[in-house]
């Protein structure tokens, strides 16, 4: 592989650089995982890096033209995927990006061990994991995609690739109702606006129910609220009556029992004549 044609490698920043380029020979056994970071340690970066690298390579192969066969994208002895992730290719990437030279080791022997293909692979996994943590999957895919296929064009931004409106409809598509369905569509919400609370002009929509019950109790009147539910469970309506001493004085309909009961009490309050009448200003005759 021509290392001079390698795509630009995503750069890292912050403490994660030390985690990537510190050899295990400088770590003491049983060192705790750094819970204050998003990545923990280099072992965790290696695991996620291996997974993300494999996925990025498969996506790049999936987009390659002419199209590859499915078996060429799977791990096997003769697959394109295994050719790309071969030990020679991974070593050429590590050497081409000079990643090995940046690793801090505890001894010369440890540094020499970096020539082992498996050590180079683990180093590359760690770097890939760090790129994913800091830059996300889109930046990682752009980088690995260019490694797999230098001729591939970067993906367009999602808002340029898809239309916002569904094809075939000038507006939202109509809802479909099966011709044999026994479920009727929910009734339109055409309830009249609630009457204002005459005793609380600053809060015209405050609750009438406690006010009505208190007034009826003070006047020693018996109040009942028989209720009935109708319609489907997900779109039914409550019908509540307000009966005062056996006489229907109010009725409310609502999507909940409490709302319907409140409307019934509101209507009954006006029907009982308990709402104070507005005082009209005296008429002033013009002076001629």
Show the helix and strand layout.
Elements: H1 16-20, H2 42-63, H3 80-84, H4 87-96, H5 108-112, H6 117-148, H7 158-161, H8 209-218, E1 223-224, E2 227-230, E3 237-244, E4 247-254, H9 257-271
Antiparallel strand pairs: 1-3, 2-3, 3-4
Helix pairs in contact: 2-6, 4-6
Pfam family, one: dsrm
Keywords: RNA-binding
GO molecular function, one term: RNA binding
Description:
The protein is built from nine helices and four strands. With 288 residues, the protein is α+β, with helices and mostly antiparallel strands. It has two domains: 156 residues, Ribonuclease III domain (Ribonuclease iii, N-terminal Endonuclease Domain, Chain A), CATH 1.10.1520; 63 residues, 2-Layer Sandwich (Double Stranded RNA Binding Domain), CATH 3.30.160.20.
CATH superfamily of the largest domain: Ribonuclease III domain
How would you sum up the major sheet?
A: 4 strands, antiparallel
Number-wise, the strands total 4
CATH architecture of the largest domain: Orthogonal Bundle
Note the beta-strand portion.
5-15%
Mean pLDDT: 79
Structural class: alpha+beta
Radius of gyration: 37 Å
What is the helical fraction, as a range of percent? 25-40%
Query: CATH topology of the largest domain, which one?
Result: Ribonuclease iii, N-terminal Endonuclease Domain, Chain A
Number of domains: 2
Return residue spans where pLDDT drops below 50 for at least 5 consecutive residues: 156-175, 200-205
Helix count from the secondary structure assignment: 9
- N-to-C series of helices and strands: HHHHHHHHEEEEH
Name the shape in a single word: elongated
